[in-house]
Specification:
Blueprint: H1 2-7, H2 10-32, H3 38-60, H4 69-90, H5 96-102, H6 106-118, H7 124-140, H8 156-176, H9 182-203, H10 206-210, H11 218-245, H12 248-252, H13 254-268, H14 275-295
Helix pairs in contact: 2-5, 2-11, 2-13, 3-4, 3-9, 3-11, 4-8, 4-9, 5-13, 6-8, 7-14
C-alpha cells in the first residue's frame, strides 16, 4: 500500500490505459481481417511489434546466453505468435466482444497448468472459481455470431487455445526463466519471432500483395499497426512497469476490465450483445475473482 500511495493515481491511469488498449485490440483484429487473412494478420502484427521493440532487444540480447536463444524463440511463439494467429482465426466466425470475454479465461488456465505440470497446490475456493469460469465459457460457446443460441461454435476453441498458450507462457516464465527480466524476455523473443514472421510474409507473397495496392489495404494495415504498437509493444512494457510499481495482483486486475471494454467497443461497432453474453461474462469474471482472491 505504501508503494501505491507514493505513486498516487499513476498506477490506476496505467491500469485503465491497459484495459482500454487490450479491450480494443479484438476490434482491431476484426478490422485487420477486413483486408487480410488470419496468417497475414498474425504475421504483420508480430513483425511490426518486433520492429517497435527492436531498440530494446538489441540492448538486451547479450544478457541471454546463446544457448537460450531457441528456448526464448519457442517462448515467443507460444506466448505471442500462436495466440495472435488463433485469435485471428476465431474472429472470422465469432465477434470481437465474445473474443474479448473469453480472453478472461487466461488466469484460470494459468492456475490449472500450474497444478498439472508444476505441481502447484489448488485449494477448494480456486477449484470452485475454475468450475464457475469454465461453465461460463461453455455457455458462450453455444452463441452464434448473430448472438442467438444454437449448436456449439467450435471457433470458440481457437480463443480457448490462445488463452492456454498464454497460460503455458506465463508458467514457463515463472518456473523456467525467472532469472531474466520480463523486458529482456519480451523484447528478445520478439526479435526472433519477428524474423520468423518476416519469412512467412515473404513466403506467402504478402509484401507483393500490399505494395502497389496500399490504398486498398490502408485501413486494415493501420489497424494492425495500431494493434502491434499499442496492443502488443507499448501495452507489454506498461504492464511490466505496472507490476514493478505495484504488485502482480494489482496489475492482474486488468483481467476484469478488458472484457467490459471489449463488449463496449463491440457495441459501438454494432455487434450483437445478448443477456447470454452478459451472463457468460459475469460467470467468467466471477470465477477469475474467486480464484484470484483464493490465490492471495
Amino acid at each position: 500500500m505504501k508503494r501505491l500511495k507514493e505513486h498516487k493515481y499513476l498506477p490506476y491511469f496505467m491500469l485503465i490505459f491497459l484495459a482500454i488498449v487490450w479491450g480494443s485490440s479484438f476490434l482491431l483484429i476484426k478490422k485487420g481481417l477486413a483486408g487480410f487473412n488470419p496468417i497475414e494478420v498474425a504475421s504483420l502484427r508480430v513483425f511490426f511489434a518486433a520492429i517497435f521493440l527492436l531498440p530494446i532487444a538489441l540492448k538486451r540480447i547479450q544478457r541471454l546466453p546463446k544457448t537460450e536463444y531457441i528456448k526464448v524463440t519457442y517462448l515467443g511463439l507460444i506466448g505471442n505468435f500462436v495466440p495472435a494467429l488463433l485469435f485471428a482465426i476465431a474472429q472470422t466466425q465469432i465477434t470481437s466482444s465474445l473474443s474479448g470475454i473469453l480472453n478472461a479465461l487466461s488466469p484460470l488456465f494459468t492456475l490449472l497448468i500450474a497444478r498439472i505440470f508444476f505441481r502447484h497446490k489448488i485449494v477448494l475456493a480456486q477449484t470452485i472459481g475454475l468450475i464457475i469460469g469454465f461453465i461460463g465459457s461453455i455457455g458462450l460457446s453455444f452463441i452464434s455470431k448473430d448472438g442467438n443460441l444454437g449448436s456449439m461454435n467450435f471457433y470458440v476453441l481457437f480463443v480457448v487455445g490462445a488463452t492456454i498458450c498464454y497460460a503455458i507462457n506465463g508458467n514457463l516464465i515463472k518456473n523456467k526463466f525467472e532469472k531474466y527480466t520480463a523486458f529482456t524476455l519480451t523484447s528478445v523473443s520478439f526479435f526472433f519471432i519477428g524474423m520468423i514472421s518476416l519469412i512467412i510474409m515473404i513466403s506467402i507473397g504478402l509484401p507483393g500483395k500490399i505494395i502497389g495496392h496500399i490504398g486498398e489495404y490502408y485501413e486494415p494495415l493501420i489497424a494492425i499497426v495500431a494493434l502491434a504498437l499499442f496492443g502488443t509493444s507499448i501495452a507489454l512494457l506498461i504492464y511490466n512497469k505496472l507490476i514493478m510499481m505495484t504488485t502482480p495482483i494489482f496489475a492482474s486486475s486488468v483481467t476484469y476490465l478488458v472484457p467490459i471494454i471489449a463488449v463496449f467497443v463491440g457495441l459501438i461497432d454494432n455487434e450483437h450483445l445478448t443477456w447470454w453474453h452478459i451472463g457468460g461474462m459475469l460467470l467468467i469474471i466471477t470465477g477469475v475473482y474467486i480464484t484470484n482472491k483464493a490465490s492471495r
